[in-house]
Amino acid sequence: MKSKILFVLIFLCLPVWCNAQAIYKKNSIRYSGVEEKRIYHLYNKKKNPSCSIKINYFYPEFYTQNVVSQTIDRIFLSDFFGQEYVALSPKEAIKKYAENYINQYKEKFELSRLYAEESEKVKENEEAQQDMDVLYTQEKIMRNTIFFNQGDIISMVINVYEFTGGVHGSAFTRGSILDLRTGKKIKYEDVFYENTQDSISNLLYSNLLKARKYQSEDEMTADGFDFDTIPPTDNFVADDEGLTFIYDPYELGAYVLGIVEISVPYSDLVYYMKPECTLFRWAESSHAGNQIKFGTTVLQQDSVLIQFTYPTVYHNSTVLQKLQKVFVENAFGKEISSFSPTDAPGAFYNKEFPNPEKTTIYLQTNTFYYNWNNLISYTVEKPNRQEGFIVDMQTQKNCVFSDLFRPDSRKEIARLLKNEPTDNFYTDGNGITFIYSPTQKITLSYTEIEPFLRENSPLLHTN
């Protein structure tokens, strides 16, 4: 009898099966802020030109990792105020910076008597005096913003506006990304492979066109853009969507453009990113690498019901084909692994149930527990049997005990389990569950197993 196969395509977004805390967990950083405002008129006369400064500074007040916390503190101070301020507390630094700014102004225009001498020359001409006063007026406004603060990533933006006399002031924005695992800033070369500048430049160009809805280069030129290519820059910030590259006035064209920000999603960037970079985890897990679409093929014939869920869409077709083969073999056995996911349930049915009239009730399905980073973990439920799998997307293979744990750890894991370890297991991101039968499962938490994991164990990135 020919079996009927019902194809049900179910596209599932990542968060359905993943443990979101693995990446999106809140870190333990608490922030505080200080403000400083000062104004000084030359020779302390209010009718004279002035120098003013306003600073709003936000900084990490507490972080559980003391060593990293000290490094982060220094980076914040250095980026915002300058290297010479890193030994000071935030309150000391902000006051010292404002004081130095005022003193430099006084030294330049007051102590040198430059303003007094120039003012004397135009004292009889009120309009000239006003024009000259503008040239001797200074203003500076500084603030930083915590652009993104989740998991192992802090992304900070520093905005500065300064007027030093003239037609208009100047503004610039500095972005930085900090890795809480290392306590270091993440630079462009930390994120991307060498010789990928042209590809990133093309992405910047296409995303600029898309964001501003330009239909042609003539429209860009009319708005003031003037560049041959858009060079990638270290001046960038990160969030859970992608990277935003920042270009100050004049970098890409006319002053009227102001500060230009170009956001590029991780789904575009992931192909050029180094896997060891912390940001790659966001790209893989949040938006590109593990944004796998799954489909479900349902076979229902006589007393047999098979629901088979498997990867259907992935940006790397070669990896997708290998993953599909793994899923087919895990569900139906090695003999069926050469069949496509849509044909595999039918091939399995024809092989296992040649006499349908003698077939007892058979139900098979799979349940997903984890789909994050480079791991997919799920179980296959069959009559009186449950099989667990952890699939490593980097190798497109099932993980076995020795892939996850150190060679000398088997006895310790057996002690925790009070049973011999088995390769029949799955993870939900918080630990690992060993399956001995559908009714006997033993779960060890991530805290329990972490001391015994291999240095390159895929489970290291699940918590």
Description:
The protein has 463 residues and is of the alpha+beta class. The chain is built from 15 helices and 19 strands. The protein has helices spanning 21-24, 66-80, 90-111, 114-121, 126-135, 188-191, 197-212, 217-223, 266-269, 278-287, 317-332, 344-352, 401-404, 410-417, 446-449, and strands at 5-8, 30-41, 50-62, 138-150, 153-163, 170-179, 184-185, 236-238, 242-247, 260-265, 293-301, 304-313, 362-372, 375-382, 385-392, 397-398, 425-427, 431-437, 440-445. The strands form 4 sheets. It has a 7-stranded mixed β-sheet with strand order 1-11-12-13-14-15-16. Strands 2-3-4-5-6-7 form a 6-stranded mixed β-sheet, with helices on one face. β4 (138-150) and β5 form a beta hairpin. It is elongated and about 115 Å long. Mean pLDDT is 85; it is low at 1-25.
Q: How far is it from the N-terminal to the C-terminal residue, by CA?
A: 49 Å
State the assembly state of the protein chains: single chain
In what range is the share of β-strand residues?
Answer: 25-35%
For the report, how would you describe the main beta sheet? 7 strands, mixed
Helix tally equals 15
Number of strands: 19
User: Roughly how much helix do the residues carry, as a percent range?
Assistant: 25-40%
Mean pLDDT: 85
